[in-house]
Write a structure and sequence with these properties.
35% of the residues lie in helices and 15% in strands. It is of the alpha/beta class. It folds into two domains: 8-215 and 335-401, 3-Layer(aba) Sandwich (Rossmann fold), CATH 3.40.50; 244-325, formyl-coa transferase, domain 3, CATH 3.30.1540.10. The strands form four sheets. Strands 5-2-1-6-7-8 form a six-stranded parallel sheet, with helices on both faces. Helix 1 packs across helix 6 and helix 6 packs across helix 7. It is elongated, with a radius of gyration of 25 Å. The two termini are 31 Å apart.
């Protein structure tokens, strides 16, 4: 039994930030009921290729959708239909959490806003996820991960250094603003549930992609706030630590991440340059940052003299942080990744047993669990209406006939 096995979540979100949040709640044991549009469902069901088709044919599933919806139950419900809205009203008293990512004010038109649903269930934790939040000059704008990475400052410090010819700002290779917002939202929801345990009252949570993107600027933001300096793109180099970047080797590349002066001293011995550890230009990290170009230029020649495997065999036993740059297929077949169960198998109703990512949450008493693969569209409509609301089969059949589900 997961830590949240007593919690039921009504998931009105789609695409990534909201589904990432509710997927994490599902991993922790929550009963997540995903409400989708009849006929089409979550937008990401159409995002592809690649699509995965069952053996023998049938409806294909988008790999994008499969990456963010494990462990959930799917029901189809037409929220623009008053009868569909009433079904949500009937479900809310049976739920602890509602997650949505509609535009600001959109759900009020359907009487599915917080104030309306709070009257039906004062214990409800209601989490809204938008690009810019519920207030402020940008509140009415649509917000997507790519533009948030740009507006939120991340792209200004991501990509090759500005002096490199042809370099441009780059987005991160995964939708990091969406994913981080999903993670922050999960934390906020669980905090609100703890508050409810003490007070008996739910609350409203206003989450914004831009807020979360700004929050993870971390040390880069503090460089500006504390020192008045605006960080710039530095490629793979670290703004505050040297050497901490990618170096070319004889047969590829290696990441060298020397985090303190003791590690640098040991590295100098192994690299055949013990005198660098006493050199006033390089002895302390502060000095290495100031003399970055000179040190990196000399290091680049040294690192090219050996292959990546040779360097790893030399540096790892001495506790000097270093690593390969793996492709995703190499990462997902790495023995440490496999040992930590970050690649798991789970049953899918049409695709059979399939590979999925595991949960990184390792709890000793209430472990996270990938119970089943993402659902096919509307897979659990009948079951939820029967089990949660007690609808008889003839009433469910009528809802299908009317286009409500």
């Amino acid at each position: 039994m997961g830590a949240l096995s007593h919690i039921r979540v009504l998931d009105l979100s789609r695409v990534l930030a909201g589904p990432w949040c509710t997927q994490m709640l599902a991993d922790l044991g929550a009963d997540v009921i995903k409400i989708e549009r009849p006929g089409s469902g979550d937008d990401t069901r159409q995002w592809g290729p690649p699509f995965i088709t069952p053996d023998g044919g049938g409806n294909s599933e988008s790999s994008y959708f499969l990456g963010a919806n494990r462990g959930k139950r799917s029901i189809t419900l037409n929220l623009s239909n008053p009868r569909g809205q009433r079904i949500v009203h009937e479900l809310v008293p049976h739920c602890d959490v509602l997650v949505e990512n509609f535009k600001v004010g959109a759900l009020a038109r359907y009487r599915l806003d917080y104030e309306t649903l709070k009257a039906l269930n004062p214990r409800l934790v209601y989490c809204s996820i938008t690009g810019f939040g519920q207030d402020g000059p940008y509140a009415d704008r649509a917000g997507y991960d790519f533009m948030i990475q740009g507006m939120g400052g991340l792209m200004s410090v991501t990509g090759e250094a500005e002096e490199v010819a042809g370099s441009d700002p780059q987005k991160v290779g995964v939708a990091i603003a969406d994913i981080v917002t999903g993670l922050y939202s999960t934390s906020a929801i669980q905090t609100a549930l703890i508050h409810r345990e003490r007070t008996g009252q739910g609350q409203y949570i206003d989450m914004a992609l831009l807020d979360c993107q700004v929050a993870i600027l971390a040390n880069q933001a503090m460089t500006y706030l504390a020192a008045g300096e605006t960080p710039i793109r530095m490629g793979n180099a670290h703004p505050n630590i040297v050497p901490y970047q990618v170096f070319e080797t004889e047969d590829g590349h290696i990441i060298l991440a020397v985090g303190n002066d003791g590690q640098f001293r040991r590295f100098c011995e192994l690299a055949g340059r013990p005198e660098w550890a006493e050199d006033p230009r390089f002895a302390a990290n502060r000095d290495r940052v100031q003399n970055r170009r000179e040190l990196v230029r000399a290091l680049s020649l040294i690192m090219k003299a050996k292959g990546t495997g040779e360097w790893l065999a030399l540096l790892e036993p001495e506790g000097i942080p270093c690593g390969r740059i793996n492709r995703i297929d190499e990462t997902l077949n790495d023995p440490q990744v496999l040992h930590r169960q970050m690649r798991v198998n789970a049953p899918h109703s049409t695709l059979g047993e399939m590979g999925l990512l595991g949960s990184p949450l390792k709890l000793s008493a209430t472990p996270a669990e990938v119970r089943w693969a993402p659902p096919v569209l509307g897979e659990h409509t009948n079951a939820v209406l029967r089990e949660v609301l007690g609808y008889p089969e003839e009433q469910i059949s009528a809802l299908y006939a009317e286009g409500v589900v």
